[in-house]
Amino acid sequence: MPADLLQANTEPMSSQTTQQRQNARAGAAGVIDEPTENTETGIGEDRETLLKMFHQMLLIRRFEEKCAESYSMGKIGGFCHLYIGQEAVAVGSISALRPDDYVITSYREHGQAIAKGISPEAVMAELYGKATGCSKGKGGSMHLFDANVNFMGGHAIVGGQIPLATGLAFAAKYKETDQVAVCFFGEAAVNQGAFHESLNMAQLWKLPCIYLCENNMYGMGTSAQRAMSMDEVATKACAYELASEFVDGMDVLAMRQATQRAVDRARQHSLPTLIEARTYRYMGHSMSDPGKYRTRAEIEKYQERDPIKLFRAKLEENQLLTEDDVKQFEEQVREQVERAVKFADESPYPAAEELMTDIYANPLR
Amino acid sequence: MAVMTMRDALNDALREELARDSSVFLMGEEVAEYQGAYKVTRGLLEEFGGKRIIDSPITELGFAGLGVGAAMAGLRPIIEFMTFNFSILATDQIINSAAKMLYMSGGQFKIPIVFRGPGGSAYQVSSQHSQAIESWYAYFPGLKVVMPSTPADAKGLLKSAIRDDDPVIFIEQERMYGMKGEVPEDEDFTIPLGVADVKREGKDATIVARSLLVPTALKAAEELEKEGISCEVIDPRTIRPLDIETIIESVKKTNRVVVAEESHPFCGIGAEISAEIHERAFDYLDAPVKRVSGADVPMPYAKNLEQLAIPDVPQLIAAVKEVAYV
Q1: Residues in CB range of B23: below 8 A, 6 or more apart
Q2: What is the tens place of the pLDDT at every residue in A304-345?
Q3: ipTM of the complex
Q4: Among the options B16, B60, B232, B261, which is catalytic?
Q5: Chain A residues with CB-CB distance to B66 below 8 A
Q6: CATH tag, B197-324
Q7: What's the whole-model pTM score?
Q8: In this structure, are residues A92 and A256 in contact, taking their beta carbons and an 8 Å threshold?
Q9: B220 near A CB under 8 A
Q10: CATH assignment of B2-183, given 1.10.520.10, 3.40.50.970, 3.40.50.300, 3.90.1150.10?
Q11: A5, A174, A197 ranked by CB distance to B61: nearest
Q12: Strands B24-28 and B76-80, how do they pair?
């Protein structure tokens, strides 16, 4: 048996200067013209990693644009929540993980699924309700799963995935596998009891869980200001003595580095972290959202700090990316998305027998 | 065979399964240091340590969900609710996560978890602490629901539930923990889920009873025998999946049925069993199926009112006589 699972750990809480917090918040709010300076490493990552991240962000953007198109053509049914505008959060954070780390998330999860390694084909086929989808056509847009890459699902009750993530982290610690669990959720989920119950248990039992709040400022059509008595999510961590930080969710490198710090804290010290990524979704809550609760001007203000635009500028500035490279990436991504749509279109629907399978692992009669 | 209480039989089942499989852990309120609110987990902390026997905060939604997440990652959690009344706070995780995960992941994530604890009526603890909610859980495909009525069944069924790869709701009757009975001591003793047990054979009428109402039904059958009415008593033991075949076989023999339960009648298990019998064996019935259920009221506190709310032997005798037209 390992050292007591419940043994207290005296790792100090992460410290972050007020200035950094303000930069992160103001950055996401579109006030700062340039990305927040990363005092730790600047852009000191290898080029291959950086370009892979750029490629992924572009892929997610074009994939989601295609989803909007397919949805309007009636190819995708039900609810469909797009990730456009938030790409830096998924790509930056997941790039800091090991392949066997767990990712679990909400119903706005196409981007995270692709970033974690589910093929665009399997995701698109799932959205099309086809047998070749990553959940065999039984989950749809809100329930993408892939056990092969430890993508533990999109979950569609707001905040429902947060206790599940806590359990994944508990299992990693119990089995001493050194894995980390990352849980994505929106800021509206923070008002659910599940969030508070989970943070309490995670710090009480020192679980290697990263709670990553994507604060896109709206829970459906209700702004955070109209729903939260105190809308600084990361600050809430102090109620549980949890390490936390604000991050500019439009800056993919800031996301990567913040997640890396949280991963180190989880893997080396078995401690949880709450990260608040300030970001913005350009599209409606779902495809049926008329968007009357915000102005066009507001959306345009945030688009000035578009995460792909910002990252491209940074890469170009450092002579890591040329206009030709971008054209090549665009072409690659266009082909990937077309391939995904073709695969989804041509795949069969689930067989009628599938209706009554997968209800029980040990069916009794 | 050893004679022991339901409480000790459950304790044995937990101990044996914890010893058998290191991926099994037990979490709940007061299960460790306090030794269990009802002492079902007595001695387990000492034997298996704090890694595997874990006192949780009072945070039912949270620790039920933690259990489901741990099950997704390959552990076999046993989540104890101090009583099933408190599981009501955890229904989102039980229903939306545990019950549906295998299906909505296209068969990728099984959830081998047991949610267990006492349920049904207790003694004078009033409305919020005295209720039978098995029909809620039995409603959902993906869940299995088990309710033992003897110490031997409790042990054998709990061991099967822990070894099962699906989420199992295991409801122990709060008034029955002290009930004694013979229990096999063999560590490989299990009772398969989904198999009913004929607790008493008879030929004139069938009483289908579960949990607390099984001893009541057996007493009623004893009394009726004296009057020349022979009753068969069937305990489904597993509510979902329900062994309806065993019940139908009995109906074909006796042609008369009483379904007894302590839960409310409306949308209850008794209604489901009655409907199944009418669909499958209508031509064999000599009288309409009669339900005897708990009163359709929140449980009252006053002792006399509480007694009136739970079916008793005279009520069952009257019901059998009604379907037997005597």
Answers
A1: B74, B75, B76
A2: 999 999 999 999 999 999 999 999 999 999 999 999 999 999
A3: 0.97
A4: B60
A5: 163-164, 166-167, 170, 198, 201
A6: 3.40.50.920
A7: 0.93
A8: yes
A9: no
A10: 3.40.50.970
A11: A197
A12: parallel
